[in-house]
């Protein structure tokens, strides 16, 4: 079988000017960044237009397994399938983080004949947006420690000599960690400011950039002014009296915005079939809100008739946040969801061991799909199940699954050969998606912004199947603090394992009756949500014992090899 | 007076295609990155050509002061001046680090009417090369700690389960620190791997990216294969038996190279007069080798008749390393040096206080210029002194200085109005540079590669004016280690204060008879030099009490303000 990289490299790419024209962009609305990428200006979002806005389709999945279910393959597949059916369509996906690229899977550009190309451009720096987020984030961290250092060192002289107001940051209550776009376990918890003249010493740590609040802001803001305002609101620390210290207070919000100014423009690339794809922002869906940007969606919806986007991981993760966080902020109403499933994933989700037959595993694992269908429907939109087809799949299992999915309430169910056949392999799926989007969206969020923190949390927990919620003393204290700061009414961004609908990766299928533990709360005042850390969710992954980077190199022609 | 940013923003930029054509590049040799930047392919370096190679002019300066002497202004000034005289010329400069941009001076694109534009593109991410260096560097750091973690955790099982050979890295002898492109004092010395399951715990720290060996490799390599090989040679750690562990041993060199693949291409921009400028790599000259890339020089020398580049800080710093490290590796022979001086800098270099008259200070400070003239001449090339003119300069002091400079052996001396008048203000200076380059270069390095470490060090120390060298016990141990590893014969990269010809910023003018202390040695096996840390040189700057970022913001039009 040809590798994704082989297929990507042997593809004859279309001039990006053709791709931009296909999306309906005028030449002054985009600028090339290298041969096959372009930054799209926010001027591509019209203030007023007679054109009906496109329909938004969100791709989600059953509970993921280590095998990969092919969600991005299906997102690109549906895009290419709709294009094949003569529709004007645009995909909107996230920029991959280098952490997973070098850690595990080697690439996140889709695969087979449903890819965004060139895949190495997408998987490595693209146009530098993630680096900009990292840089802006770490400038704030450096600024906090520098201010602390000088106020401590200069004492009473500080205000007189600098003309700046003392902030009196409490070194034990710095809320802003640092970020790096790698899987770096050793940086999870560190002690900084050691050594003569480098203090005050205090505990700190690094998250992966995908977990940065600035990444969430990039994905959620409407325009540059909104981004500037949100960055100013970011809560960096508390002072010795417990009062909040924001990026605005520290005077660093303008510089942070300047660093991210170009990052606000989505990057236009193409699928293997020449469909436009806007790539923008990259929050993870387990430790962050897991969706590409509102700005990219707005550009795409203004120009295309169909916009296909995806939320990370299962429908309990990225899709939930798509509905309750992203659409709440953007005001968009998705027309339909595509729910990706594989036979292999359902069997793995059964929790059954080798003693069970393939059919037994599939039947048991189906409960997981049924939960996800019902979850999607709970948001008032039709769920189209896409069975991502693998060569080894048994025909009768595929037929059984299709029947069961429809019986469980799916609007439609189609087998997708997007990976092996590209656009044609996803045409049947795309036709059902077309039909699903023809009806009026009755989209609704799961909870109201006015609900209390406890009510919001309980609504989500019950949806997962939990019998109750167990707040740790630290989480209770965090909530008291948030309430004191007037920030307790924000929507929730659940940080939990993607490997179960619950908080516990060992609970397979559609678990019920468990107690959802809440370890800590973190507020993202600029992004506009409260992150709820359940179980032992890591905001910084680690490299495994045999990491993906081992395979990656350049060949004699200077081409990158080993990315997938 | 108009700000640099105002001048930059109101400039009518020429299409980059015109700039590329002016340099003689064919359209397949460059790719746009945004409207006003282009990556230039290494295919622009011809294997063979009938065309005579251009002449290389290196710009250096007297001992710098906090006021700024205008070295980049003069580099761009001479470039624009040569263009004004009808010459085919290209400037080659470094990419500015974000550390100083947000820390101190707000920009490093030249100034006034001798700038590289757009200045905010140059000063912020440009085409992302520095971010790529940061990312590649930190991938290696994460890889070291992950390997250490898994070998420790898995014990005997490691080799069996991964198929990889144990490296047995000694956590106390990890030589690879981490990097960030900010001034972040609190990260100078840190403890990593704290907390359950994140260890082994050990001391580490961050340098600024400009000090990364990968930045030096980017600046010194000849092509992608050479870069790949050098990255493989980078010494990351010692194992428990004291044997070296390289990036190749860790299997991470290929991935690091992949991250830096696009960074190897210099970025083409333009000066305010429309002269081509290649911007590439950004090692500092105090803690690293302080020069832009060999690749950029090679591209420029292949196409232009004159190439104007600069070494960081005074001629004891970047210029020395230009000659003894960069030219040793590239084989290039500079035709002339331009030595930038200001009246203000010489007075500050006098070490005299307010009790002395202006003329007394100038006379005393002149010893500094005399040293730099003689230093340049010691390399066998003519020194053209450029007096960077400020409005407040007294005419008679300017004339006195010009006379003295010629008497001290300068090939020529001209007053430069490059800042206020652009190309015309530097035309007289450029004419003298033209004359200086007309003679045959008798360029020679200061020491031979075969000299022992001690002999090389003594040669440099004597040139500074030192009576001797004092190696710390740690430095002696470092040297013994380097000798054991067979790496003691590499050229030296002196890490010292730029604020004195000596190691001590308090020693002004042209100090003599001091003892040069050597604190530690660090080897850069891939870059090919030994860094000699003198005094208390910091490889990570800190933000001051009133840092530059306070002024930086975006305005209502989304333009960046406050950069200079």
Short description:
Chains A, B: GO terms for molecular function: ATP binding; formate-tetrahydrofolate ligase activity. 2 copies of one chain form a homodimer. Chain A is an alpha/beta fold.
Key phrases:
564 residues, homodimer, Domain 2, N(10)-formyltetrahydrofolate synthetase, Formyltetrahydrofolate synthetase, domain 3, 36% helix, 3 domains, alpha/beta, twelve-stranded mixed beta sheet, four-stranded mixed beta sheet, 25 strands, Rossmann fold, 20 helices
Task: Write up what this structure looks like.
The structure is a homodimer of 564-residue chains. Chain A has 20 helices and 25 strands. Chain A has 564 residues and is of the alpha/beta class. Chain A folds into 3 domains: 4-43 and 55-128 and 263-436, Rossmann fold; 130-257, Domain 2, N(10)-formyltetrahydrofolate synthetase; 453-534, Roll (Formyltetrahydrofolate synthetase, domain 3), CATH 3.10.410.10. In chain A, the strands form 6 sheets. In chain A, strands 1, 2, 3, 4, 5, 6, 14, 15, 16, 17, 18 and 19 form a 12-stranded mixed beta sheet that branches. The first copy, chain A, has a 4-stranded mixed beta sheet with strand order 20-22-23-21. In chain A, helix 16 links the parallel strand 18 and strand 19 (412-416). Chain A starts with a helix and ends with a strand. The interface between A and B is large, with 80 and 80 residues. Chains A, B: It comes from Shewanella cyperi. Chains A, B: It catalyses: (6S)-5,6,7,8-tetrahydrofolate + formate + ATP = (6R)-10-formyltetrahydrofolate + ADP + phosphate.
């Amino acid at each position: 079988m040809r590798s994704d990289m082989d297929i990507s490299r042997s593809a004859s790419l279309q001039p990006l000017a053709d791709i931009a024209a296909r999306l309906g962009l005028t030449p002054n609305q985009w600028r090339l960044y290298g041969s096959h990428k372009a930054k799209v200006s926010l001027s591509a979002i019209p203030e007023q237009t007679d054109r009906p806005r496109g329909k938004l389709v969100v791709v989600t999945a059953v509970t993921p397994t280590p095998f990969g279910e092919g969600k991005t393959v299906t997102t690109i597949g549906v895009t290419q399938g709709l294009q094949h059916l003569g529709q004007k369509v645009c995909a909107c996906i996230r920029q991959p983080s280098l952490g997973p690229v070098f850690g595990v899977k080697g690439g996140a550009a889709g695969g087979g004949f449903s890819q965004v190309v060139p895949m190495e451009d997408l998987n490595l720096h693209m146009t530098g947006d993630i680096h900009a987020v990292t840089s802006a984030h770490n400038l704030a961290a450096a600024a906090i420690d520098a201010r602390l250092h000088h106020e401590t060192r200069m004492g009473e002289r500080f205000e007189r000599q600098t003309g700046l107001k003392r902030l009196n940051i409490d070194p034990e209550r710095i809320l802003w960690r640092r970020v790096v776009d790698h899987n770096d376990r050793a940086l999870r918890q560190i002690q900084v400011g050691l050594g003569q003249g480098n203090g005050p010493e205090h505990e700190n740590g690094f998250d992966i950039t995908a977990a940065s609040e600035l990444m969430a802001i990039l994905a959620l803001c409407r325009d540059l002014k909104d981004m500037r305002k949100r960055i100013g609101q970011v809560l960096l620390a508390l002072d010795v009296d417990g009062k909040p210290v924001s990026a605005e207070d520290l005077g660093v919000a303008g510089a942070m915005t300047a660093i991210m100014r170009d990052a606000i423009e989505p990057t236009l690339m193409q699928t293997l079939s020449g469909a436009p794809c806007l790539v923008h922002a990259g929050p993870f869906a387990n430790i962050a809100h897991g969706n590409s940007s509102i700005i990219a969606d707005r550009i795409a919806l203004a120009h295309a008739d169909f916009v296909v986007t995806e939320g990370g991981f299962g429908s309990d993760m990225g899709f939930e946040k798509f509905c309750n966080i992203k659409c709440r902020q953007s005001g968009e109403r998705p027309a339909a969801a595509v729910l990706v499933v594989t036979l292999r994933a359902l069997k793995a989700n059964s929790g059954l061991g080798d003693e069970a037959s393939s059919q037994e595993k599939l039947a048991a694992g189906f409960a997981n799909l049924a939960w996800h269908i019902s979850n999607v429907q709970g948001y008032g939109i039709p769920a189209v199940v896409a069975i991502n087809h693998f060569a080894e799949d048994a025909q009768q299992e595929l037929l059984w699954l299709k029947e069961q999915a429809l019986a469980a309430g799916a609007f439609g169910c189609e087998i997708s050969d997007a990976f092996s056949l590209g656009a044609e392999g996803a045409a049947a799926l795309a036709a059902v998606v077309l039909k699903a989007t023809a009806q009026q969206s009755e989209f609704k969020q799961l909870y109201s912004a006015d609900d209390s923190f406890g009510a919001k949390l309980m609504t989500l927990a019950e949806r997962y199947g939990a019998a109750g919620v167990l707040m740790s003393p630290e989480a209770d204290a965090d909530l008291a603090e948030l309430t004191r700061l007037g920030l307790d009414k924000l929507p929730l961004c659940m940080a939990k394992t993607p490997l179960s609908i619950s908080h516990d990766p060992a609970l397979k299928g559609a678990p019920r009756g468990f107690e959802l533990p809440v370890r800590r709360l973190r507020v993202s005042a600029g992004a506009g949500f409260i992150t709820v850390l359940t179980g032992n969710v890591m905001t910084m992954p680690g490299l495994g014992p045999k990491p993906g980077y081992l395979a990656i190199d350049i060949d004699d022609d200077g081409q990158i090899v080993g990315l997938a």
